[in-house]
Amino acid sequence: MKPLQQNKSMGSPLNWLDELNRKIKSTKCRIHQKASSFTDGLAKATTLLKTAIDDKTTVFWVGNGGSSAICSHLAQDVLNKLEIKSLYFGDTSLMTCMANDFGYKEVYARPLKSFVKKNDILIAISSSGNSDNILSSVKLAKDKGLNIISLSGMKEDNKLFNSSCDVSFFVPSNLYGIVETSHEAILHGVIEALWLQKTSKTKKIH
């Protein structure tokens, strides 16, 4: 059997990873809708989560498809590593009930309405930045006085990146794998940096 030949026109796994690195580092950011550096955006997101630790507020997550998987995964990391109350409404029975009774646009906004309180955090993830159910959740969060962290990609004029959020990240790529992995890496960076700070302080105490 002949060895599998890499299709050079499609790139290689290493080229893909190099592109991923470039796109993460070229992520665009806005703080309260004003252009900001990626470094400042990361610092803002970190401050929001640190405030959630101090004030004992809750982090809520919304996303579809691959973004839903990111929400499910990192909601547990925030709870486990940072000891912040963290909720993702991804239960199948809940989601299908909301979608059936109120339409998919309200699949997250409807349960969020019953749980959120002022100064909680909403982390909204959408690769396209144009998913109606994510945008309706952001609107609800804004109306309820939540702090909002959004992550999007594809086109810079997408609705999520141009919504009124405390901090917004935009990954300039039209490849879903690059966008989704970048979103997860950005959030992992914020969460694990805080966790390392926390564990470092604990070691010093002991």
Protein described:
The chain is an alpha/beta fold and 206 residues long. It is built from seven helices and seven strands. It has helices at residues 13-25, 38-55, 66-82, 92-102, 109-115, 132-143, 176-205; strands spanning 28-31, 34-36, 58-62, 85-88, 121-125, 147-153, 167-171. The protein has a seven-stranded mixed β-sheet with strand order 2-1-7-6-5-3-4, sandwiched between helices. Strand 3, helix 3 (66-82) and strand 4 form a beta-alpha-beta unit. The longest helix is centred in the C-terminal third of the chain and has 30 residues, at 176-205. Mean pLDDT is 93; it is low at 1-10.
Q: What features would you highlight for this structure?
A:
globular; disordered N terminus; 7 strands; alpha/beta; seven-stranded mixed beta sheet; 206 residues
Describe, in short, the structure shown.
With 206 residues, the protein is of the alpha/beta class. It has helices at residues 13-25, 38-55, 66-82, 92-102, 109-115, 132-143, 176-205, and strands spanning 28-31, 34-36, 58-62, 85-88, 121-125, 147-153, 167-171.
